[in-house]
Amino acid sequence: MEINNGGDLLALLNRLLERLHQADLTNFGSRLSIVYVAPGAQHVDTVQNQYLGAHPNPPKGREKRASETEKEAKALICQSITLLMQELYGDELLFNQQSHWQAIYRILVDKGYCSDSDFDGFDIFIRTVMPEEVNKPYRKESVKNISQTDFGKPFEQWRFDPVTSKTRKPFDRMAAVAQRFKEILEENGL
Predict the structure, then answer these.
(1) What is the CA angle 19-23-27, rounded to 5?
(2) What phi, psi does 176 have (nearest 5°)?
């Protein structure tokens, strides 16, 4: 297309911008404010990275449906719990008390996979990601007891308190379970 004057260029630009605006395609995050004019009028509009046709370089993660991503996350959480069950603490298994499920609960809450104090919701969730073999059986009641301990706070706020924790060894063990589970999740991209 040959452009004879600035008016032709302006008209072409206006048509293109109108098509972008009317395309109503997916917003990929950036904003571009545009002013385009016609003789005797001015129009200000915002186009948010809309593309005619497919996005030339789709952002990572956006190409998958949410249900696929959720399934993958659950599979990775299950794998992470399985790996946690194999971890050693000295010459014994790190995860060796039923109360250690509180550490898993705390880390999953901190990472946003479960809601704080929603023990029924956690119970449903954990049963969907539970490996076939675990060192100690999960019981909802043992996780609910977290509210009576120092472990009810976000993991980053855990501090040994001799008044509430009484002895150091169980606190350190629970902190080690939580820390290692968090690291395993992060190694798996969660």
Answers:
(1) 120
(2) -65, -40
pLDDT tens for 128-144 read 999 999 999 999 998 99
CA distance 119 to 142: 10
Distance CA 165, CA 170 (A): 8
Q: Which two tokens stand for residue 3?
A: 């452009």
Alpha helices in 112-158 (DSSP H): 119-129, 140-144
pTM of the model: 0.64
| Structure-block tokens of residue 190 | 């969660």
Return the closest-CA partner of residue 13 out of 44, 36, 42, 39.
36
Distance from the first to the final alpha carbon of the chain: 51
